[in-house]
Amino acid sequence: MSQMLLMLLATLPIECLVRAQVPLMSSNENQFKDSWQYSLDQQNLLKHLGGMGPYVESSGFGLPVNPPPNGLTVDRAFVLARHGERFPTVSLGDALNTTYTKLKKANAELAQPDKGPLKFVSNWKYLTEDPANYENLTWTGRFNGFTETYKMGQLIAEQYSHLYDPKQVLPVFAADKKRVYESAVSFANGFLNTNDYYSLPDSDLAVVVPISESKDSGADTLTTGKSCKPYHKQSNYRPNKRYNPTFLHVEAARLNKVSPGYDITSEDVENLCALCAFELNTFGHSEVCQALSQETLVGFEYIRDTLLYYTKANHPFTFILGSVYVNATLSLFESDKVPYNGQKIWVSFSHDTDLLYYLNSIGVLDYQLEDGDLSIDKIDFHRFFKTSELIPMGARIIVERLSDASDNKWVRVIVNGNVMPLKNCQDGVG
Ligand SMILES: *[C@@H]1O[C@H](CO)[C@@H](O)[C@H](O)[C@H]1NC(C)=O
Ligand SMILES: *[C@@H]1O[C@H](CO)[C@@H](O)[C@H](O)[C@H]1NC(C)=O
Ligand SMILES: *[C@@H]1O[C@H](CO)[C@@H](O)[C@H](O)[C@H]1NC(C)=O
Fold first, then answer.
1. Which pLDDT does position 430 carry in this prediction?
2. How far apart are alpha carbons 39 and 3 in whole angstroms?
3. Where does the record place the catalytic residues (predicted)?
4. Is the peptide bond before 88 cis (omega within 30 degrees of 0)?
């Protein structure tokens, strides 16, 4: 485990990701032991990007994924994944571009543009020149959406090779938005190790099945929210709420002091936080992340967490929206006549909101729901509900069926690489 961490740190530009002082570690054994005593996870910037940033594993609870507990074997698996790293949506992209354009203009007029943390603005390039790229997967930089979903395919193939019979066609289902469909294509390629992210793999081995996101599809879709009218009138049922941030103007004042002349507002600070996440998705590094204080990003994370919690995770309709997939999982797991041509692994790609519905319905969110709603007046630091843990770009929820030699069955949930025990269902082995 620590060795893995070391390898990871050795391959990442830690100056970009881990902004607090990280003790340098060597392979010297004594120093290696010292490293056990540092808590690095909390300093990982990817843990604070509010679901807008690159994939990062969940923190987990120390329960190993491999081998499964008590000599059990995984005999079926259901994977529900979010698309890979993408550009911002059109509306957010336009807002981010407004802040970008404003800062560039100010920079050009400054007598001393190289002062303080915003000095990078002189050479700053926007995420993309072409607004047609908005909403789509990114394809450059270490965290790009194509590579990430390809890697996901490789990891799933490695973990569940015994569930896949190459003589059969692996179907990968995808909501039909371009970024979701392309993620499924890249995943299928990774699963088959084709070394190609973009082309459809050999149809004898895998097919990608687009599923309409249109509301006309009713519940026969991976995006059940679209056709649920009352859900869209959500403010009739529950007001949209989000954390009321007081820290944004503090950060704006700090930046205006150390890098004078840009007239940074609270709104700009919020846009810079999002730019930090999307620059990592697009370029794999970000000077914007470096310029912001860690406290600001932690506050930004909470804005995102509260926003998504109230609109997508604990809205009165999310349980029912997610129960469509939970029921589907259940019927795939319950039939013992080896249905569907003997298929034992199912993979679907959709959006963060749909993953949140599923997490609600399957009981993962009970830790938060039974603990009470998130405060919007102050940051609830002890919350369970963290979007960066649950739905980063490329998020993946896996539900496994496990069985023993006497054919007893259990179910295990794995969220973003780690076992996620359910609050109200812990009576299985291990
Ligand atoms: C950003 O805004 C500038 C100024 O309005 C515009 O020229 C440019 O095309 C915009 N970029 C994108 C990607 O929309
Ligand atoms: C991004 O997606 C849109 C919508 O599917 C598409 O029209 C556009 O061509 C895409 N851009 C690129 C660069 O693929
Ligand atoms: C899921 O199954 C339960 C139990 O059979 C049923 O009560 C519920 O209506 C189903 N939900 C959906 C959305 O079909």
1. 74
2. 15
3. 83, 352
4. no
- State the sign of the Cα–Cα–Cα–Cα dihedral 375, 378, 384, 386: positive
DSSP state letters, 203-236: TTTEEEEEE--SGGGTTSSS-GGGG-HHHHTHHH
Among 95-99, 149-153, 224-228, 263-267, the least confident range: 224-228
* C-alpha 254 to ligand 1 mean position (Å): 27
Order of strands, edge to edge, in the sheet holding 396-403? Answer: 206-211, 170-175, 345-350, 73-82, 396-403, 409-415, 418-419
Give which of 119, 127, 122, 118 is closest to 52, Cα–Cα: 127
Q: Which amino acid is at 255?
A: L
Distance between CA atoms of residues 319 and 359, nearest Å: 9
Which residue has the CA at smallest separation from atom 5 of ligand 3?
Answer: 327
Q: Tell me which of 239 and 301 has the higher pLDDT.
A: 301
Ligand 2 site, residue 90, Cβ cutoff 6 A: no
Of 338, 208, 311, 285, nearest in space to 54 by CA: 285
Output the pLDDT for position 338: 57
How many angstroms separate the CA atoms of 17 and 280, rounded?
9
